Amino acid sequence: MKRLAIVLAVATALGFAPHAIAQHSGHPATNVAPVADVTFTLRTEIADGALVFVGEAGAIKGQVNPDLRVPEGKVVQITLVNGDGALHDIAVPEFQAQSDQLVGKGSATTIVFRATKSGTFEYICTLPGHKAAGMVGKLVVGDVQKTQSTAVDIAMDPSDVGGDSVGERAPHHITYDLLTTEVEGKLSDGSSYRYWTFDNKVPGPFLRIRVGDTVTVNLKNREDSVNIHSIDFHSVTGPGGGAAVTQVAPGQTKSFTFKALNPGVFVYHCATPMVAHHISNGMYGLILVEPEGGLPKVDKEFYVMQGELYTAQKHGSSGLQEFSLDKLLDEKPEHLMFNGSMDALTKTFKMEADVGDTVRIFFGVGGPNLTSSFHVIGEIFDRVYDLASLTSPPLKDVQTTLVPPGGATVVEFKVDYPGKYILVDHALSRLEKGLAGFLHVNGEADPAIFQTDEAHDPNSGH
């Protein structure tokens, strides 16, 4: 007989504490679940190469990871039917609703809980790796449109690489006007954070110059900021990389000029005490100092930076997240992301290339604390400019490359086979905290490179 596991996570007013009741055919449970006000049925499936929930009935029928909308205070019942035969469960952590695990096609489990507060919350499969593989959706309780409307999109477009290579041009005098801001930005669906930024984006703009250029930096701190900000360029030879002369109060502007003496890809960041706090909040970026003659031509270039957020709320919480000094000092981030937000390189922006293209990724770690083991699942780096040294011979045929906080690298590879390739830090537990990106490769499959008789989706990841 098929097993039905019922988990109750209900309010005190109902007289139930959060607990689980397992009910088998012929063995009635000793407690009875409250009558549900709202019911949903989901099915587990593999779709587009991902593990997902699919709506089984009603208005959500056929939808992948559908939004489940319920009024505040109502008792909610979610039934999960196993449609792919693998081991799964379902949980809504915010309401302590957690099912037993189910395996085998057609088996089912149900959670019942009261939605005691409004907001946007996650429902997930809690098995290791399943959330990162796609088993996550939104439970929307009450009317949350107003609370989310103030958050702006701070994610940096990975295709914005500051224009084309400098080529054979002579040294120029270049001026950059940068603005520091403090804005509530989108962290993920249903959650936000008060970021500190350069030019309203995380990371800040990709700056592209050549060795020998003279650069003037005008740094303005927006009038509505409440903190002093500054900028430290690792490409600058001079006091604090510029930070010593750019401690800028709200509404003020400070400037300095430097000559680019060394080629490479360099991090810049705010260097106002507490420096780690300013960096974590989003104040970092990259400046490329190309060697004389510029970089060799490639088909596609991308700008990607890894960062950390330290919040009082656990990863997956909804609403405005608050900074936690204790977690920063303990170096225990709740969120890790590429280009500022959980969704930047998976939903907000689409990194694309065609079979046969050569791809170059300028990759940096804002940090402030964790080293990255940068890896693209299903690809091998043809060339790695280790630690972003553009004058050293590149490493060849590299699987994973280390990048320290405040450091960078350049990787290049030819894409030979279509599919969805996943950018990760190979400290793979960090996938569970949001650290993933997709490179979509379009074109014809070459069976000499990869072939299988197994049913598969060429756009799948892993």
From TrEMBL:
Residues 96-141 form the Blue (type 1) copper domain. Its EC number is 1.7.2.1. Its cofactor is Cu(+); Cu(2+). CDD domains: Cupredoxin, CuRO_1_CuNIR, CuRO_2_CuNIR. It is an enzyme of class 1 (oxidoreductase). It catalyses: nitric oxide + Fe(III)-[cytochrome c] + H2O = Fe(II)-[cytochrome c] + nitrite + 2 H(+). GO terms for molecular function: nitrite reductase (NO-forming) activity. The keyword Metal-binding applies. Binds 1 Cu(+) ion. Residues 1-22 form the signal peptide. Residues 186-292, 339-439 form the Plastocyanin-like domain. InterPro entries: BlueCu_1, Cu-oxidase-like_N, Cu-oxidase_C, Cu-oxidase_fam, Cu_oxidase_CS, Cupredoxin, NO2-reductase_Cu. Keywords: Copper, Metal-binding, Oxidoreductase, Repeat, Signal. Belongs to the multicopper oxidase family. Homotrimer. This is Copper-containing nitrite reductase. It comes from Novilysobacter selenitireducens. The gene is nirK.
